[in-house]
Amino acid sequence: MIEKGVATDAYFVGVINIQLITSQGTFNRETLCVDLFTDINLNTTYYTYDSLPSAVPPSDPEKDLLSVSWLIDNAMLPVMYPGQYTSALNSAYWISTSSTTAGTGAQRGEALQFAVWDMTVDGGDGFSSGQVQASTITGELTDPVVIADAQFYEKAALGQFTNNADVYINWSGNVNESKGTPAQMLEGPLYTTGPQPLGPEPATFILVGTALIGIGWSWRRQTRKRASCRA
To answer: How far apart are CA 11 and CA 1, in angstroms?
Structure first.
């Protein structure tokens, strides 16, 4: 991809599995990155607020977490809760490990994350302008299937909004957020069981053991000692 004008190998792109540790127990949650330019490390414990999208103060006017919520719900919930959720998206674009006419599960997962990055960083301006772009450099081309799927997701989400999502505001180093180190913000579908988003109030959740779940991950290189879902 082209990141801030520089051709960049994406380190991880796709769905992230986190374990949310609370007084109620441990809960596995699926999320995506909504904060491209902030790192998060694998197998690391973080403090977190579990918030609704509408309760997150926007760091810039482009970060449209409500449209991202709509897209995540429609792409992921039909697979998470079969027969319980009606999606506005063609089933070929649902996020699963199966291959469909829209590509492999990995390609669709990568495309969903690519679309989310463009929506949160550039306001969904497509993949040929802004800080998030597809690469057209010979030998470093962005997968055309991923581009096509990402364009589909972005177009489908245009003008769509929902507040039904979990947004995880993460930091490390100190239980007091203002004294800690910011980590990447994540957003995932709203789960019907376990702890629920608490709006603007702080929670005592711990985000631990960020790991791959096999849906939509791209491992492009292994040159860094730490891992994040950006290059």
So the answer is: 11
Rounded to a whole number of angstroms, the distance between the first and last alpha carbons of the chain is 9
Report yes or no: 30 and 188 within 8 Å, Cβ to Cβ: yes
Residue 224: the pLDDT is: 33
pLDDT, averaged per 10 consecutive residues of the chain (231 residues), comes to 87 82 82 89 82 79 85 95 93 95 94 95 94 91 96 97 91 86 91 74 48 34 35 33
Residue of 63, 21, 32 lying closest to 166 (CA atoms): 32
User: Where do we find the tokens 């999606």?
Assistant: 87
Q: Please state, in angstroms and rounded to a whole number, the distance separating the CA atoms of residues 201 and 26.
A: 20
Task: Indicate the DSSP class of residue 120.
Answer: H
Task: Kindly provide the b/e burial profile for residues 55-76, where b requires at least 16 CB atoms within 10 angstroms of the residue's own CB.
Answer: bbeeeeebbbbbbbbbbbbbbb
The DSSP string of 53-112 is: GGGSPPSSTT--HHHHHHHHHHHHHHHHSTTT---SS-GGGS-SSS-BTTB-HHHHHHHH
Predicted TM-score (pTM) of the model is 0.86
3-state secondary structure 195-228: CCCCCCCCCCEEEEEEEECCCCCCCCCCCCCCCC
Are 157 and 124 within 8 A, CB to CB? yes
Domain range summary for the chain, segments of one domain joined by +: 2-212
Residues in Cβ contact with 144 at an 8 Å cutoff, skipping those fewer than 6 apart: none
Q: Is 163 left (phi over 0), alpha (psi -120 to 50) or beta?
A: alpha
